[in-house]
Amino acid sequence: MTAQPFPVEAGHIMMFARAIGDENPSYAEFAPPTFTIASAQYDPDYRMRPGAGQEWFGSGREPGVMPEWGGGLHAEQHYEYHRPVRVGETLYAHVVPGGSWEKRGRSGRLLFSERITEYRDAAGEPVVTARQVAVVPEGPVTRKDEGR
After folding, report:
1. What is the C-alpha separation between 54 and 66, in angstroms, rounded?
2. DSSP character for 103?
3. Which residues of 9-40 are buried (b: 16+ CB within 10 A; e: fewer)?
4. pLDDT tens digits, residue range 76-88?
5. Which of 54, 88, 117, 121 has its CA 20 to 30 Å from the CA of residue 4?
């Protein structure tokens, strides 16, 4: 999603606020704090949303279902706010390289990777920086109650 335009529209903010159960009156002027996650809906190549006629790839239970990151689960989401997101402006999403690391879990090695999206305004000034972290367990993941 390099330099993907994201129009900050009042109707989109209203639907987002209702979906998260927070209809704060200030959202008539400013977007809710996590609103920039909705920018993915403006990216025609967003891989977590299948296109028309494509089979849904699953819920994340099986390896390889997060095609954007090669499999795994969503582990963390962080936001850094440089200023409020204003209704009526257009932001531009720029994906920049993130880090990768590993940790040892109870069932083996865990591989972490991050995706950083910088949201900038029309003047190129930073507005929000979003960091998503995914984790991929090395080896199969099973649930204890799977046989029920």
Report:
1. 15
2. E
3. eeebbeebbeeeeeeeeebeebbbeebbebbb
4. 899 999 999 999 9
5. 54
